[in-house]
């Protein structure tokens, strides 16, 4: 199958952090009536960022006393300014909890967030936390921007955070998480919950411990428009970089000490036909993201990149709080590492009906319909934050059948998933504005399916392989789209 090249006539963009793309983009960042009229655009963000209110605890007193910067080191305005420097349009502050930490958030972290919004207005700054998840490990809890946001988070953290009480084992129950999700489902302003580093506690490929396929299915069944997905690419990706920039040969990407990441991605996402594909094969709207999990930058002696420095979650939205959160909730997302790309459009067109569907949308077809897939991405001609200009060397078109709910809720495989086509750099040309357009017919599909896109610099691995200790994360870059759904 041959790639058909279409030369794009879009506005030029020469730097991965300029955000100049084929869509209207405003650099004013004001939040007024003009915002409601702007067109959607790809907005880069990070929903897993820690401030110095991810505290340590002095356990010599009862109750334990919070120690500012005991875990993460930076203030919220510092994180926001670094997010802006590294090309982010939106971010979420997600501090860990602990005994009575709900009071720390309400009385200390939230006022600093409000001040940070004033200090760095060009970045939309959501309120949230890294929920110490009952019966699991951690999840990003994103609170919608409203006058009620402070007390909404206080309520959730106070009643449901596992570590809010002194003896957290009393709350470490899956049933309490389901109760929390059912509660959130009743809120006027519905939060978003994403499982953080879901496979980090797995002890082997497909051998899960604290976070399991059945558990995530239970979350999604309980609150499908709140528990909407998981980190595909976890944070702590600078674990193998020493403060002077040299490589630590023992450093493990993501802190995945038991079973490694694969191309920097969690096995629940990276494994072809694995857990993510099993969820999509059920017809679930289960989406992936990428984050920094920033606590302390590697130059300051820890394992992290700044927000946006290495991983980005792009949401197709207007630059308003409401639009970003709703389009994140609805999966209008692609993710990338190392600024490999900064725009990605995936469209399935039914040539009989004239209908089209983009990322996270659904299109209806009947057997015999001619479906055309168009993949359009921009590989920017500019250096990333490692002062390199990585090139996309391969794009994979991945499809899987949608067969409905599985009888075995512990299942983490979809055997129908396959790579339908691999395109290599020799198959395309890049136009002056950095865009490449690939098209191909989807003739093989005759049953309900999904199609998702993956791309990489790495042509040595047809599938992402286990990341060895000491791997330089800048030299193994990937991007992933969320799926387009096709219903027959």
Automatic annotation (TrEMBL):
Name of the molecule in the record: Phosphoesterase
Extent of Polar residues compositional bias: 8-27
Superkingdom to which the source organism belongs: Bacteria
InterPro entries: Pol/histidinol_Pase-like (IPR016195)
Region (Disordered): 1-37
């Amino acid at each position: 199958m041959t790639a058909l090249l279409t030369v794009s006539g879009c506005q030029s963009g020469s730097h991965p952090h300029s955000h100049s793309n084929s869509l209207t983009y405003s650099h004013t960042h004001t939040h007024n009536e003009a915002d409601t009229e702007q067109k959607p655009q790809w907005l880069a963000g990070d929903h897993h960022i820690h401030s110095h209110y991810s505290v340590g605890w002095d356990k010599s007193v009862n109750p334990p006393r919070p120690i500012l910067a005991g875990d993460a080191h930076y203030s919220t305005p510092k994180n926001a300014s670094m997010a802006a420097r590294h090309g982010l349009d939106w971010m979420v502050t997600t501090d860990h909890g602990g005994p009575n930490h709900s009071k720390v958030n309400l009385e200390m972290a939230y006022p600093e967030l409000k001040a940070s919004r004033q200090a760095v207005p060009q970045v939309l700054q959501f309120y949230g936390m890294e929920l110490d998840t009952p019966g699991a490990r951690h999840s990003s809890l994103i609170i919608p921007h409203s006058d009620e946001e402070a007390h909404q988070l206080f309520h959730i953290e106070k009643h449901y955070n596992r570590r809010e009480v002194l003896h957290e084992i009393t709350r470490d129950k899956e049933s309490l998480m389901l109760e929390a999700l059912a509660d959130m489902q009743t809120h006027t302003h519905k939060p978003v919950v994403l499982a953080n580093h879901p496979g980090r506690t797995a002890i082997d490929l497909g051998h899960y411990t604290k976070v399991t396929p059945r558990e995530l299915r239970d979350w999604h069944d309980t609150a499908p428009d709140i528990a909407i997905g998981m980190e595909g690419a976890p944070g702590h990706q600078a674990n193998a970089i020493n403060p002077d920039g040299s490589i630590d040969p023992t450093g493990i990407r993501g802190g995945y000490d038991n079973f490694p990441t694969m191309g920097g991605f969690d096995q629940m996402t990276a494994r072809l036909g694995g857990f993510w594909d099993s969820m999509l094969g059920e017809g679930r709207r289960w989406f992936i993201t990428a984050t920094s999990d920033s606590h302390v930058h590697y130059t300051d002696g820890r394992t992290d990149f700044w927000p946006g420095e290495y991983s980005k979650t792009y949401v197709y939205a207007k630059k308003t709080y409401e639009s970003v959160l709703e389009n994140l909730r609805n999966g209008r997302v692609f993710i990338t590492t190392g600024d490999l790309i900064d725009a990605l459009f995936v469209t399935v067109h039914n040539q009989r009906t004239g209908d089209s569907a983009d990322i996270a949308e659904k299109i209806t077809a009947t057997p015999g319909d001619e479906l055309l897939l168009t993949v359009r991405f921009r590989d920017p001609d500019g250096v990333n934050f490692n002062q390199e200009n990585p090139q996309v060397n391969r794009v994979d078109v991945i499809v899987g059948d949608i067969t409905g709910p599985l009888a075995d809720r512990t299942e983490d495989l979809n055997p129908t998933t396959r790579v339908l086509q691999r395109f290599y750099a020799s198959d395309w040309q890049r136009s002056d504005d950095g865009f490449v357009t690939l098209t191909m017919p989807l003739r093989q599909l005759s049953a309900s399916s999904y199609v998702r896109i993956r791309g990489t610099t790495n042509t040595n691995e047809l599938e992402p392989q286990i990341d060895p200790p000491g791997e330089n994360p800048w030299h193994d870059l990937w991007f992933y789209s969320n799926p387009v759904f096709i219903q027959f």
